[in-house]
Amino acid sequence: MNPGYVKMETKERNETGLWTDEVIGRIRSKMAWVSEKNRDKIPYTTDENGNYDDRSDRNRSWRIDDGLNWWTNGFWSGILWLLYQDTGEDRYARIARISEERMDRCFSDFYGLHHDVGFMYVPTAVADYRLTGNEVSRKRAMHAANLLAGRFNPAGRFIRAWNDLENEDTRGWAIIDCMFNLSLLYWASEESGDPRFRHIAMMHADTVMQYFVRPDGSVNHIVEFDPETGEMVRSLGGQGYGEGSSWTRGQGWALYGFMISYIHTGKQEYLDTAKKVAHYCMACIPESGLIPVDFRQPEQPAYEDSCSACVIAGGLLELAKHVPASEQAVYRNAALRILRAIDGQRADWSDGCDAIVQNCSAAYHADRHHFTMTYADYFFIEAVYKLKNIGRLLW
Predict the structure, then answer these.
(1) Active-site residue 128, yes or no?
(2) Most-buried pick from 3, 15, 65, 248 (CB within 10 A)?
């Protein structure tokens, strides 16, 4: 190898290490006060004054599926478990358990829970049990896993996504997001020794490979199947620009999600699929490193989704761990490009906003864009920690 190349590579590695250390320092500093300020909340986003909301507030007039049952409610606890692994400070574990315990009411209320119990209970109950051995957390996680397994449609070999929506028959709907929820089933199978959970997860992943992932590595957000026969009916644009487009957060769910399935099963097709999605994403990253809501959206309006950016970066870094050494830099450098853009242009490290990552968007055609999301912070922090091999993969 060219000595000059080796010297340059070493310099870049050292610079990345210094940058990562600086960002971790900023994360620790910000989360020290943000965690205490919001210890009794389960936040999703911030208001105009930069203060976190509280999805567990019973005095708010939430719908049945966007209050305590809101699908992102596990990520606040997940952030705290990341900080617990980093710092070893017990206070992060204590605050994380407030969310976990409060969410027990979701089980008794039942209505409003759907396939996103994976997002809700992996970063809370599963994380708690894995890191501390809390047996009550194990019971919660196994309960959630059984609820998720109960949504499996054997005719179509898919997990039903949402519950009934107004004016929409969703009995046959599956969505790309569920690739992340599968981690709950893999954990349950490994923890209990019961292969049913793993079989359900793998059948769903196989269906996603066949019907969601296109030859070029772009993915559908929603695919509808006939709930009686299992035959594919149509694909829908969902939260992206339209049918046949490329919703970037969906790309992240696919990339990272197939890596999760590969890690838990060793099935080569899952790794190959993750690589296919990764190369599509890398080819579409703008020069700025800032990620749009949809890779196929019009130039204007130029909506961004920094949350998608963080999910994609995390998936790329996980992929880099499982490919030959000669391939690792390609994925790692792409992830770094995204994370540096977030830190340099879309991160708020001040005390004027509870959230770190700015300019997130839930959907291209939504009324609101460029706000904060707790799970964007989760995936940003997780990705930065990956660069230093801090903590274990919670998924």
Answers:
(1) no
(2) 248
